[in-house]
Amino acid sequence: MNRSRRRLALSRRTTLKAAAVTAASASLLTAGAVTGSAVESTPRAERSSLNYVALGDSYASGMGLGSPTNADCNRSSRAYPVKLKELANTTSFKNVTCSGATTRSLWNTEGSQPPQINALSKDTDLVTVTLGGNDVGFAEVMITCALTNDCQNIYKSGGTDQLKDRINKLAPRIKSMVTDIKRHSPKAKVMVVGYPKLFPSSNESHTCSSSYPLSRAEMSYLDGVNVELNRQIAQQTRAAGGEFVDMYTRFKGHDMCQTLDKRYINPVSTDSGSVHPNAAGHKVMAEDTYLNLWF
Q: Taking the model in full, what pTM does it have?
């Protein structure tokens, strides 16, 4: 890298770090909320023009948000990749996120949708991806827990934790996923956006009553599964040279059992967006991912 490029890289890094500090300060003043004005404090002229591709499942597609751009994939114009595109001032944007996608959807057709990896090219500068939850059987797990009120014992029957076994089997696929993305787009920054905190931890107060579809014990168990899922995704992402963006920590105090004004996750219901980030949650996901763009 020549001196002029080094100066440019340093300038961009300094500008983005300043934005991060501003956002962090705003976070303390507003009880954890990253404000749009904090993110917008980075001048648009200082932002890199990027060729951006978004990969992922329903947590990236914006399931339940409305404003659909692809009904088959529950892809919404209000989802975090779209908001990130606007913040990052991208030159081009391909959004192939799709509800129901697994890591296998990266390489294989999913229903009518082509392999997500087909969206990548050697000119891609930025890739975000949120995948893995469906490999563990997220939808099946939520249905089982809501109907039985004792799912932690069901999944632990036989002396092993079936969900943690599934996560262990997923781990090498995460590493292969990041490795293959980097092979297709060698100059791209690959950002694996983790899953947000969905449920209160065992020691946290919350507003979910005893009539809620999930028991306190189930929510505590599922929170632990989410922690392990994110831990494995983060570990495998970094091992493959990608960057993990932690959303679990960012969503603490904003899970489905918080009051409406604090909640970033939709509660358990029959709605399509059940147990998924709401509009406020996607806004935070976009802003936090943007603040990790250290080009």
A: 0.83
pLDDT digits (tens, 9 = 90+) for 211-228: 688 988 999 999 999 999
Which DSSP string do the residues of 147-209 spell out, in sequence order? HHS-HHHHHTGGGS-HHHHHHHHHHHHHHHHHHHHHHHSTT-EEEEE-PPP-S--TT------
User: Position 292: which residue type?
Assistant: N
Asked if 152 and 221 touch (Cβ cutoff 8 Å), the reply is: yes
State the Cα torsion 87-89-94-97 to the nearest 10°.
-10
Q: How far apart are CA 92 and CA 51, in angstroms?
A: 5
**CA 101 – CA 109 distance, rounded (Å):** 10
Q: 35-79, pLDDT tens digit by residue?
A: 444 454 443 334 457 899 999 999 999 999 988 999 999 999 999
Q: What value, to the nearest 5°, has the Cα angle with vertex 73 and ends 72 and 74?
A: 100
Residue 180 near residue 188, CB atoms below 8 Å: no
Strands 189-193 and 126-130: parallel
